[in-house]
Specification:
Shape: elongated
Strand content: 15-25%
Distance between the termini: 53 Å
Largest sheet: 6 strands, mixed
Number of strands: 17
Strand order of the largest sheet: 2-1-3-8-7-6
Number of helices: 14
Length: 417
């Protein structure tokens, strides 16, 4: 079994100046090859610390993949450090040198001497052509380990790894297990509650595995199966998902990289329904997120940001007595906003979001008090009250997600009625 570690080289990664997207990409590709990835390492442009990272990786992986540090400047030390560690020479690759010279000629630029450094490769290595840049990649097998060196820029690294790196790691006569994953997305249940409901399934996991992950007000479960036949692996995932759905299926809203807003847009398109929004608390966030999704124009009529009571009254016709007696942060105000917005825009669905995001109380209501109204044509308007915690921005973001969730739930009830 091949186990890999990915080492990203570059001080700019540690400083937070760029994000290490390379590790994610490579891990996804390795999963298709049936190669486990147990560690991602990031190290700066320092030969001693890089050498330490290499020695650590060699103790826990037999495939070590490096990204970055192959350029022409003095701080690009990946090749040199690995060559010294393995007792290998760096030799000039003539094809790579000619490719670099051609690049400078084609772009009418003067090639400086240090650019020749990019054509140096580990002696005895298999060269990976760089079709989108200058520095070639390379693969060296020695001492029972495979060392792969790739450039750092994703536009160079990704095609190199896909077209040259993957074949180098997967001989044609090899039969590899496929690693297949599926992500179940949950809303309306916390990570602890979800884990409690399926703890016996998690404890019994082996293949497939179940990995919970919480973030940004949602919970996900990543199911992962291994098998030489991808169809069988998918069937294994189906069985685990079926067992999970029996316990907590009502909280599942989608798969993989989808979002609540994407799912809402899809359902509205399928049902040929148009939506509008009246936003006080969220200041237009619901509409902004909705219109960021391709195809939203087919379901979104437009909406109103009604931050002031004056706009609530004059534009959306919330009654004076409602604002004076119940207040803007109230069930009645949320109800009128949702219904009146739908009437104003001629939409099938109106959603309203009003509440207290903080940092101070409003109308005697504590921070985190949220009312969400959902008015669906032909059905009684529903208003949900929430008590949310967190920062001002977190409360607003979660309110938008709850709004999507409540609409989806109400449409589901409508469909089943």
């Amino acid at each position: 079994m091949k186990n890999a570690e990915i080492i990203a080289v570059g001080s700019e990664l540690l400083l937070g100046q760029i994000v290490n997207t390379n590790a994610r990409f490579i891990s996804q590709q390795l999963a298709d090859l049936g190669i486990n990835v147990f560690f991602h390492t990031v190290v700066g442009d320092n030969p001693d610390r890089l050498l330490s990272a290499i020695k650590t990786a060699e103790k826990r992986a037999n495939v070590i993949i490096f990204t970055g540090g192959l350029g022409p400047t003095k701080d690009d030390l990946t090749k040199e450090t690995i060559a010294h560690h393995l007792g290998k020479n760096l030799v000039m690759d003539q094809n790579a040198l000619e490719s670099i010279e051609l690049y400078f000629s084609r772009t009418n630029r003067v090639m400086t001497e240090n650019n020749r450094k990019q054509a140096l490769v580990l002696e005895g290595s298999h060269i990976l052509p760089n079709d989108h840049g200058m520095a070639p990649g390379m693969v060296l097998e020695t001492n029972g380990n495979t060392y792969m060196l790739l450039p750092g820029p994703p536009k160079e690294m990704e095609p190199m790894f896909r077209y040259y790196g993957c074949p180098a790691l997967s001989p044609k006569d090899a039969v590899n297990e496929k690693i297949v994953s599926r992500v179940l997305r949950f809303f309306g249940i916390g990570e602890a509650a979800l884990e409690t409901e399926i703890i016996d399934l998690i404890d019994a996991q082996s293949n497939p595995t179940i990995a919970p992950l919480a973030g940004d007000g949602e919970v996900t479960l990543r199911l992962t199966a291994k098998h030489v036949d991808e169809v069988v692996a998918q069937s294994m995932l189906d069985e685990v998902e079926k067992a999970i759905r029996v316990r907590v299926g009502q909280f599942i809203y989608g798969y993989d990289d989808t979002s609540l807003l994407s799912e809402l847009t899809k359902v509205l398109k399928e049902k040929n329904l148009a939506i509008t929004a009246a936003e006080s608390l969220t200041g237009g966030m619901f509409q902004k997120e909705l219109t960021s999704i391709s195809g939203a124009s087919a379901v979104f009529k437009g909406g109103v940001v009604c931050y002031s009571n004056e706009v609530k009254n004059k534009v959306l016709h919330v009654k004076h007595e409602t604002l004076e007696k119940d207040g803007a942060v109230s069930e009645q105000c949320a109800l009128e906003l949702a219904e009146n917005a739908a009437d104003l825009m001629g939409a099938d669905i109106g959603i309203s979001l009003t509440g207290v995001a903080g940092p101070d109380e409003l109308e005697g209501k504590p921070v985190g008090t949220v009312y969400i109204g959902v008015a669906i044509k032909g059905r009684p308007t529903v208003v949900e009250k929430l008590t949310l915690s967190g920062t001002r921005e977190a409360i607003r973001n979660r309110a938008v997600k709850y709004g999507c969730y409540f609409i989806l739930q109400n449409l589901k009830v409508s469909q089943n009625a």
